[in-house]
Amino acid sequence: MSWFADIAGKAEDFLNKIDQNAAVALNTLEEGVGQSRSRKGSKTWAFTEDVKSETSTSYDVPTDSTISVTMNPETNPMATPLNNNTMSDTALSIKSDGFRAVAPSGLPLQAQQNKLTPVNQPSRSRSRPTTKVKQEHTEISNESQSTTTSVNGKQVKTDEELLEFLNSPGQKEIDESALLKSELATQSKEMGMVLKNYKKLQQDFDRQSKTTDELRKSLNDQESRLSSEESNNVQEISRLKEEKEKKNAEINQLQQRLDETLEKLKGMDKLLELQNRVEHLDLENRQLASKNMELDDKTGTLNNQLIFLEKQAQSAKEALAVVENDFSVYKEKAKSILKSKDELIVSIKNQNSSSKGIDGSFSSIPTDAQVMAEIGSLKNERELLHGEISQSRSLCDSLKDENRRLESDLQSLRSNLLELQEICSRDRNISHSIQEENLQLSQKVSSLQLEVEREKSEKRKLDEKVQKLANDNELGFSIATRSSSGSTNDFTKASSLSRMNMSPVPSLGSMSSDNFDERENLKTRIKALSQSLMEKQSLINNISADKQLLQIRVERMQAQIQELTDSSESNSHGGLTQTVISSQPLYLSESPWDSGVTTRVKRVYSRVDSLCCQFGLAMRHRPNLRL
User: Fold this and answer.
1) For the chain, what is the radius of gyration of the CA atoms?
2) H-helix or E-strand spanning residue 93
3) Where are the domains of the chain?
């Protein structure tokens, strides 16, 4: 029920305020009626003790015309929205059940209500219980019924009489007069403020008039100065224009020369590139020539090695033919020996079977032992011969295989030699063509070097002239800026005059802008030349990279040629010295007790052994031949 208690408290506060406002209004009416009869021109208005400090001043009441103006704020020229607001604030009325009370002027409604409330009134809380509210309400109602008021010396005991008195026409006139007095007081205050502001504005206007007079005098002086300076500037500008025309003509001539020199320089740059390229090609030609000489030497050595290998192959073939002949002769001899031995054995057996006697038995015993010994020796020789024959056959087969392999190696070496000869011929043709190009380029370079020197001298002269012209232009521009800088401070005070008088100055800016454009053109051309030089440098770098690649290829070819020479030497010598190859094993060493056949066989075996050693070493160095 807190909301009900709040509503009851608010109602009680409202009733108390109504009672207090009524009492204040009655007191003011008594004082106002007595004073209005005695004084008509000027009156003083006083509120209660709380309000006296604010509205204690006295004001003169104006005539009827002024009152009519104040009553109609729309026709008043001095009326402002602020005045209208003050009127609405000061002329506040509180209406409740036909009751009408006037609030004091100069304060808002809430402040007036706070001032009208008594000090000793207790504050009413909104959260008090309902029983207490009812008791207080009954007490206040009883007090209001029991209280009596005095109006104009008369005792008014009831509220109805009080309301009738307040709603009477006399009370309404008193309220209107109070409102008019409050409005007049506020307007008089505003008029005082307006007068003060007017005096201040008058003083400011006097000061500004003095400053304007001084400024006009200074402007007249400055105009005279500007006129004199303008005449001087016009003369200087005419002189500078003439100089500018002359210098522009000179600059055009120099520009044409620069264009010609730049074109020639471009041609010279190309020639320099060609010269550098010619030098690089000369170095490459020298290197290729040295490499060709080395290749020729290596081909000669390889040809000598091939001839030596062919001779060795022929000697091996001859040795094989001799061995085959010896082997055939040896076979025939062995067969004849075996036949003779068989015949002897048969004849001895026949003799032994036919001659059986006592006399012949003693004489035949030693002959049989000798025969058996010879037969055993012959059998052993036959077995040895069979083994040697089988070994010689295997050796012949191996020698044939080795001959075939050597022939295949010779063919591969010949093919490699042919390839090397083709490469050498190509390199020679390339070197001849490069030499011819080098001769042509060297002639062109020698003819163009003279032109380059001439162009350089002309370029130096042109650069000197351009620098002189640039210095002259800078001096003229500095003179113009000095003449114009003296008047810039004066132009700030009179901007309209400065715009009219500074019209010829942009001609100097145009002069400087033309020179600036020419300089920018020169800078752009220099940048283009630098870019072309960078591109040429990149081309030179690419050529050097190609040269390095060619050097790497040449080194690889040299390594391959070295490998071929090493392989040919290893094939010719087997990777060993001549002493090692010529040395023979112990079981093939000749002795004085050997027969002719054994010595021949040992020699053949020694040759075959050396060939086998060479072939084995070649197979070690070149494993591809094993396939």
Assistant:
1) 73
2) strand 93-96
3) 2-167, 220-573, 574-627
